[in-house]
Design a protein that fits this description.
The chain has 273 residues and is an alpha/beta fold. The protein contains ten helices and twelve strands. Helix 1 crosses helix 10, helix 5 runs parallel beside helix 6 and helix 7 crosses helix 8.
């Protein structure tokens, strides 16, 4: 089996998310006497899927494709090649495919509601690429909470979901909305960048600005202040992906399964509880 992630241009250690998912998959597959191979796909390979060596050399029995930045065209090519596969943190809008997703919309809704219930009315959402399903769903959860409170949404987009992009969005947000009180970030890296940039601009967290992230990566609890976030059950996602992949290999005629894993709001100091 191959666990496949996109070869990002930024430092992958900024967001230690998918290695934990892979560990969950590896544990499940090892119990069934399967081994897992970690590999990456770069942009040229995504553009020319037939060049993906682990498939064209028949080196694996199946694929777990992890991340929203693996293109639909690449996924469809793998399906067309008859390779059993499961998507993690991604799905196709027009084609049924095995996938494991988070309750992204529900998690962002809960985070935003928490900020609103604590009296904040100027609440921004810091997002990433609009083509990523997780970003879209999390933005929709934020928008739903704001709409129910009869408040105008304030969404900022960036090309990445990194510490640097979080800092950049915070600069833009404070310029556009000087009364900004709270930020719901699309992931923890963005949230950490936002907190750091706010401090440089003289805004303390949580005294002047409440911040909530998403994913609950290991860095979240170690941040200063410790970061409130939405916990994603990463190992469970990996276990489910492995289970679906084994089912797809053993029962190739079975219909694809779409699984949504619940999330949990984790409150720490960055939002003032």
């Amino acid at each position: 089996m191959a666990f496949v992630v996109h070869a990002c241009n930024h430092d992958a250690t900024e967001d230690p998310f998918y290695p934990i998912i892979m560990a969950g998959a590896e544990t499940h597959l090892a119990a069934q006497d399967y081994h897992i191979l970690l590999t990456t796909v770069d942009d040229p390979t995504i553009a020319q899927p037939e060049a993906f060596s682990v498939v064209n050399q028949h080196r694996v029995d199946g694929l777990i494709l992890a991340g929203p930045d693996i293109s639909p065209a690449f996924i469809l090519n793998m399906l067309g090649a008859g390779v059993p596969l499961v998507l993690v943190d991604n799905c196709l809008s027009q084609t049924a495919v095995n996938c494991v997703l988070n309750d992204d919309q529900g998690g962002a809704y809960a985070a935003t509601r928490h900020l609103l219930e604590h009296g904040h009315t100027h609440v921004a959402f810091f997002s990433g690429p609009q083509g990523w399903v997780s970003n879209r769903e999390r933005a929709q959860g934020y928008q739903r909470a704001m709409s129910e409170a009869s408040l105008e949404p304030l969404i900022f987009h960036a090309a990445e979901t990194t510490i640097a992009s979080g800092a950049e969005m915070m600069g833009r947000a404070l310029e556009q909305e000087p009364l900004l009180e709270a930020v719901c970030a699309v992931n923890d890296s963005v949230a950490i960048g936002a907190v750091r940039a706010a401090a440089r601009l003289g805004r303390r967290t949580p005294q002047d600005l409440a911040v909530i992230g998403f994913d609950d990566i290991s860095w979240a609890a170690l941040n200063e202040p410790p970061l409130s976030t939405v916990h994603v059950f990463k190992q469970r996602m990996g276990q489910l992906a492995a289970q679906h992949l084994l089912n797809a290999i053993q029962n190739p005629q079975a219909p694809p399964v779409r699984t949504i894993v619940s999330t949990e709001l984790v409150l720490r100091n960055s939002c003032g509880h």
